């Protein structure tokens, strides 16, 4: 059965909230954000590779990141790269992957996973994925993994499920990022999970769902003469991909389908979406200060995140709950509470001083 297991790692995002380390030229999935010796995409690939053969792992990314993927994932061949000429959200890239893989194996079961998330208990993660794949191989269902919430986070979407004795639950509804009061009510109810953006389904089931819910996109991609895995594939993608609707798989398929199930999971997940989420994952001193790469002394300072170029000596005094990040000729000093403003800060800096990337 494992010969039918495939994975698609989505690696086309920019990670703009991790500026100045993450840039359009070199986004966060290609960085060793947690100082582990592996970039996030390398860690993701190696985790999935314990269950899925490296020959069956595909990387969906923007064409500009081809060289970075090849450099960091030497096991990936050109045929396993799904290169997007333009960004069109998750539905088009998932359809592209499903059609290409279906042409290779009509019984394929697909894991769709982001490239830049962190998972503490990788063994439990693989067990949960295998449970999901086994279920999807037997039934026409679309599955998502829902993270058991431990706080009323307002930065995530939520999944409400129907309470039952079964391990895998029927999805009742998807909810967008809530305000704090609503998030607190979600936690109190006991039937809401965080939407991690990790999906499992058979190629047959997801293609059927596209036919039902995104028929125009399906017609655009599903030609009478298939181009997938032929010399015509690249030419077709370069010409037609831009014409696909810019829509997520959540909005386009999952919120419309009636065969969506969720597996509640708890394997120490973080989307590492912000510097604050990174601060939570890093080892900290007795005053809750976290350091990456720098040689630091903290004096009367608490709850800070410091990242500089390797070996730089830094003294911080009298500062609480700040992000201090250095990258090349850029220095960011920002309250952790204001980290959502980083996109605006980046835009303002580019407008004032010109766009500089490295």
From TrEMBL:
<protein>
    <recommendedName>
        <fullName>mannose-1-phosphate guanylyltransferase</fullName>
        <ecNumber>2.7.7.13</ecNumber>
    </recommendedName>
</protein>
<feature type="domain" description="Nucleotidyl transferase">
    <location>
        <begin position="7"/>
        <end position="284"/>
    </location>
</feature>
<dbReference type="InterPro" id="IPR029044">
    <property type="entry name" value="Nucleotide-diphossugar_trans"/>
</dbReference>
<dbReference type="GO" id="GO:0009298">
    <property type="term" value="P:GDP-mannose biosynthetic process"/>
</dbReference>
<keyword id="KW-0547">Nucleotide-binding</keyword>
<dbReference type="InterPro" id="IPR049577">
    <property type="entry name" value="GMPP_N"/>
</dbReference>
<dbReference type="GO" id="GO:0004475">
    <property type="term" value="F:mannose-1-phosphate guanylyltransferase (GTP) activity"/>
</dbReference>
<comment type="similarity">
    <text>Belongs to the mannose-6-phosphate isomerase type 2 family.</text>
</comment>
<keyword id="KW-0808">Transferase</keyword>
<keyword id="KW-0342">GTP-binding</keyword>
<dbReference type="InterPro" id="IPR005835">
    <property type="entry name" value="NTP_transferase_dom"/>
</dbReference>
<keyword id="KW-0548">Nucleotidyltransferase</keyword>
<dbReference type="GO" id="GO:0005525">
    <property type="term" value="F:GTP binding"/>
</dbReference>
<dbReference type="InterPro" id="IPR051161">
    <property type="entry name" value="Mannose-6P_isomerase_type2"/>
</dbReference>
<dbReference type="Pfam" id="PF00483">
    <property type="entry name" value="NTP_transferase"/>
</dbReference>
């Amino acid at each position: 059965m494992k010969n039918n297991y495939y994975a698609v790692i989505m690696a086309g995002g920019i990670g703009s909230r991790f500026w100045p380390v993450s840039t359009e030229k070199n986004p966060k999935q290609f960085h060793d954000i947690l100082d582990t010796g592996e970039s996030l995409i390398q860690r993701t690939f190696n985790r999935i590779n314990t269950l899925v053969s490296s020959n069956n792992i595909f990387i969906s990314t923007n064409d500009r990141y081809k060289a970075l993927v090849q450099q960091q994932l030497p096991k990936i061949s050109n045929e396993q790269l799904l290169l997007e000429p333009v960004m069109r959200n998750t539905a088009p890239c998932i359809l592209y992957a499903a059609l290409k893989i279906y042409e290779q194996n009509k019984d394929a079961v697909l894991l769709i996973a982001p490239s830049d998330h962190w998972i503490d208990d990788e063994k439990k993660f693989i067990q949960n994925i295998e449970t999901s794949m086994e279920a999807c191989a037997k039934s026409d269902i679309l599955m998502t993994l829902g993270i058991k919430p431990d706080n009323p986070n307002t930065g995530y979407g939520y999944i409400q499920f129907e309470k039952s004795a079964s391990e895998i639950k029927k999805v009742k509804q998807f909810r967008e990022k809530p305000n704090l009061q609503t998030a607190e009510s979600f936690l109190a109810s006991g039937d809401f999970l965080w939407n991690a953006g990790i999906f499992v389904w058979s190629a047959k089931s997801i293609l059927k769902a596209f036919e039902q819910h995104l028929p125009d996109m399906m017609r655009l991609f599903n030609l009478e003469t298939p181009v997938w895995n032929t010399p015509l594939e690249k030419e077709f993608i370069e010409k037609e991909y831009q014409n696909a609707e810019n829509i997520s798989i959540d909005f386009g398929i999952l919120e419309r389908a009636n065969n969506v199930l969720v597996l509640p999971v708890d394997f120490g997940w973080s989307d590492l979406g912000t510097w604050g989420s990174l601060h939570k994952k890093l080892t900290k001193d007795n005053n809750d200060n976290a350091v990456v790469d720098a040689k630091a002394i903290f004096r009367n300072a608490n709850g800070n995140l410091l990242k500089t170029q390797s070996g730089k000596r830094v003294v911080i005094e009298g500062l609480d709950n700040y992000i201090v990040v250095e990258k090349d000729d850029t220095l960011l000093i920002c309250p952790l509470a204001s980290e959502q403003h980083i996109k605006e800060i980046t835009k303002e800096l580019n407008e004032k001083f010109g766009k500089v990337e490295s």
